[in-house]
Every structure is written in structure tokens, then in C-alpha cells.
């Protein structure tokens, strides 16, 4: 790749490719957005970096306040880091030490969900537990209780029974050892790497009630779902279910620079606030709260605030174009939508697998057509930047139908 603009990537041989997946799910407004680029340039002439321990700076303070205004009002405290895996590690460590500081040292276990993916550091891997990537590292990972994720899709008649099953198993775990759990962690509304598996808002509300009943912390990993991806500012807003801790990254800077934040409720913050140094949260990174990244994030937030219809209206575009181009296709099943995300499975006659050989085949065929679509096994998904208009999204769906039809003839 040599350059990019909007939803278009340009290869060194001159070919242009439509970025249908926002690179690695990070690009919100289109590549090389001039307002974000200008904000980074301006900040670079003032302060490019400073140790974020004992010091602060205006871009970080402004960003903390800005993010809080779009989250549930109970999430009041912001901890900066530099990537999604780290944001999750911070959430896990924060939950564990919270109980430790309260004198409940036995609360150090976690409950996660089948198919969960929270990152590739040891704690984040442990929280997911079930990814096919992590076999060599199992001896290093701490045990996590895993329960089913109640995935659903359009016209799924079994959604409620799946939710009841998952909630029943959760209740069994919590009742058996109520004083052993520090938290429950989930990707709300959409599990990303597992294949864009979606759950209903009602499940997240029931999960919140269960966490309250057993006095266990609820952690939302919104690294992928944050900043408009689900059709609202955050999945917790769309689902009307507020976590105790939330991890954010990916789209936070509009795809320009690494940055992450972990937010928590005031009572969690208070458990660390003390004259006793040993209650402090000793976690930091060289580029924590980097001023350039914070400037990029502020510019991105400004763009989101200026026109939230770009992410709020995309689901209807997805649905219209899917109906036009995919209706009647026997090559797909489990068509589903959540905000700016659309996904479906290609029927292969086999169980779904991330390493299904059809994935690389589909990716290659889409590239030949000029579209960057990177299937997760036999799951095709689209997650375009918010600058993608209906005409461009129509082209994407037309390409999907052409590739699938050619696949059927092969």
C-alpha cells in the first residue's frame, strides 16, 4: 500500500481497493481524514510526548471529559493505555485489585463467553480462553469459567432459549462459589474475531441484573464495538446496560494512532484512592496517554459529534442493499446486522471454523474484484468506514453476490 483516501486504498502498482472492513476495524471516518491529520500536526508542534506519571496534559484531560459525556453517567474515571489488549488487561487487573483492596482476596476468578476474543496478551487470552490461536500458550493462561454466548441473527426463533441457557449456567457458576469471582467479561452485542456473532440487548440487560444480584463486576470489552460501530455511540448505550468497567480502543483515534482507555465506576476508583501506596494501581506504559494520539482522538470525536447519522444510519443501508443483492441466495445463511456491521455465513456443509479453507479463497476473489473483505473462516462481514455512502455500499454487496455466484459455479 502506498496511499489511501476515504474508503479507498491504493497499491504500489496503481490498483485501487475499497476498504470494506475499516482496515483492522479501526478506521471510522475514512483514511487520511484531513481534520485528524491537521490535529496531529498541530499537536506535534506543541508537545509530542511526556511521561504520564506525575504529569498530565490538556489533550488527555479534554479527551477524558469528552468520552465520559457519551457514556453512562456512572462511568466517571478514565485510565489511559495504548492498545485494545492492554485496555482489557487493565480491566482484569483493576477488577482483581479492587476486591483485594476491599480485603476480599478470594475474588480473583473470571467468567467469560465461548468464542470470546479480548486480545493476545496473557490475561486477555485467558479471558477469551477458546480461541484456536492460543494452543502453545495454554500453560501460561489462568483458568476462566466459560459459558455459551447466545448468538443470534435475523429470523432466529431460538434467541430467547439461548439466552435463558446462558443465564442459567451463569447462575449455577455464581451460586456454587459466590465469593470467588472478580468479574464477568463480554464483548457486548458483537463478538468480533469469533465471526461477528451477535447477541440481543435483552441478554446484556439480564446479565447486568445477574451481576448485581451476586455482587460481581461486569466488564464490557468495547474495543471493537465502541465509537459508533453498533449504531450508537457505544454498545452499552444501545443495549441500555451499563458495565462497571469498560475497555475502549481501535476506532478511538479514527484509525490514525494507537490509544486505549479503560473506564470504571466511582466506587472502583475509590477503592484505590488512599494514603497507603500499596493500594495504588501500578500499571503504566511508555506511550500511555500520548498527546498526539489524544489529539487525534479529540478530532475524531468532533467528527462523530458533528454528524452521528453517519453511523446511526448505516444499518438501514446495509439492510436495503442486502435485500437487493443477496435476497434469494442459497449460498448464505444467518444474515445479521448491528449498526455499521453486517455478517453472514457461506454455506459449506461443514461446521464453521476460523481456519476454513474457503476464507482465503474468498479473500483472494474479493481482492480480484477490488474489495478488501477479509472473511473469518466462512463468515463474510462488512464493516466499512462511516464515509461509505449508499452507492459504495451497494457496490460492495454487488461484489459479494458476484463472488458467491461464481463460487457456486466453480
What would your notes on this structure say?
This protein is α/β, with parallel strands linked by helices and 410 residues long. It has two domains: 3-32 and 313-409, Aspartate Aminotransferase, domain 1; 35-306, Type I PLP-dependent aspartate aminotransferase-like (Major domain) (Aspartate Aminotransferase, domain 2, 3-Layer(aba) Sandwich). Helix content is 39%, strand content 17%. The chain has 14 helices and 16 strands. The strands form four sheets. Strands 4-12-11-10-7-5-6 form a seven-stranded mixed β-sheet, sandwiched between helices. It is globular and about 70 Å long. The two termini are 30 Å apart. The model has no long low-confidence stretch (mean pLDDT 96).
Layout of helices and strands:
Layout: E1 3-5, E2 8-10, E3 16-19, H1 22-25, H2 34-44, H3 58-68, E4 75-81, H4 84-101, E5 109-113, H5 122-128, E6 145-147, H6 159-176, E7 181-186, E8 190-191, E9 197-198, H7 201-213, E10 217-221, H8 235-239, E11 245-248, E12 260-265, H9 266-272, H10 291-306, H11 309-312, H12 314-326, E13 332-338, E14 341-346, H13 358-369, E15 371-372, E16 379-382, H14 390-409
Parallel strand pairs: 3-15, 5-6, 5-7, 7-10, 10-11
Antiparallel strand pairs: 1-2, 2-3, 4-12, 8-9, 11-12, 13-14, 14-16
Amino acid at each position: 500500500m502506498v496511499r489511501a483516501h476515504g474508503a479507498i486504498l491504493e497499491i504500489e502498482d496503481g490498483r485501487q481497493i475499497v476498504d470494506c472492513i475499516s482496515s483492522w476495524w479501526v478506521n471510522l471516518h475514512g483514511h487520511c481524514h484531513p481534520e485528524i491529520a491537521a490535529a496531529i500536526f498541530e499537536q506535534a508542534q506543541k508537545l509530542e510526548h511526556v511521561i504520564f506519571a506525575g504529569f498530565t496534559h490538556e489533550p488527555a484531560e479534554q479527551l477524558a471529559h469528552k468520552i465520559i459525556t457519551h457514556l453512562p453517567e456512572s462511568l466517571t474515571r478514565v485510565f489511559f493505555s495504548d492498545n485494545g489488549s492492554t485496555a482489557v488487561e487493565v480491566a482484569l487487573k483493576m477488577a482483581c485489585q479492587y476486591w483485594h483492596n476491599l480485603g476480599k482476596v478470594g475474588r480473583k476468578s473470571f467468567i467469560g463467553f465461548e468464542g470470546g476474543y479480548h486480545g493476545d496478551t496473557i490475561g486477555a487470552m485467558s479471558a477469551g480462553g477458546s480461541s484456536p490461536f492460543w494452543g502453545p500458550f495454554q500453560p501460561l493462561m489462568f483458568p476462566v469459567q466459560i459459558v455459551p454466548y447466545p448468538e443470534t441473527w435475523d429470523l432466529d426463533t431460538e434467541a430467547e432459549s439461548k439466552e435463558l441457557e446462558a443465564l442459567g449456567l451463569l447462575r449455577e457458576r455464581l451460586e456454587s462459589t459466590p465469593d470467588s469471582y472478580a468479574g464477568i467479561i463480554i464483548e457486548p452485542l458483537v463478538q468480533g474475531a469469533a465471526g461477528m456473532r451477535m447477541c440481543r440487548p435483552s441478554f446484556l440487560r439480564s446479565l447486568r441484573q445477574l451481576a448485581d444480584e451476586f455482587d460481581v463486576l461486569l466488564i464490557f470489552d468495547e474495543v471493537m464495538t465502541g465509537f459508533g460501530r453498533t449504531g450508537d455511540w457505544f454498545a452499552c448505550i444501545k443495549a441500555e446496560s451499563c458495565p462497571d468497567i469498560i475497555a475502549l480502543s481501535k476506532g478511538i483515534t479514527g484509525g490514525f494512532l494507537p490509544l486505549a482507555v479503560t473506564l470504571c465506576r466511582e466506587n472502583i476508583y475509590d477503592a484505590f484512592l488512599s494514603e497507603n501506596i500499596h493500594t495504588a494501581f501500578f500499571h503504566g506504559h511508555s506511550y500511555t496517554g500520548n498527546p498526539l494520539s489524544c489529539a487525534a482522538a479529540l478530532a475524531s470525536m468532533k467528527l462523530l459529534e458533528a454528524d452521528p447519522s453517519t453511523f446511526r444510519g448505516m444499518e438501514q443501508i446495509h439492510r436495503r442493499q442486502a435485500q437487493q443483492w443477496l435476497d434469494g441466495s442459497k449460498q448464505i445463511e444467518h444474515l445479521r446486522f448491528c449498526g455499521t456491521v453486517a455478517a453472514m455465513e457461506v454455506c459449506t456443509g461443514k461446521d464453521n471454523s476460523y481456519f476454513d479453507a474457503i476464507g482465503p479463497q474468498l479473500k483472494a476473489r474479493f481482492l480480484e474484484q477490488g474489495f478488501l473483505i477479509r472473511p473469518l473462516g466462512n463468515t463474510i462481514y462488512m464493516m466499512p468506514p462511516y464515509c461509505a455512502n449508499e452507492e459504495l455500499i451497494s457496490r460492495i454487496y454487488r461484489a459479494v453476490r458476484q463472488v458467491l455466484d461464481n463460487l457456486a459455479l466453480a
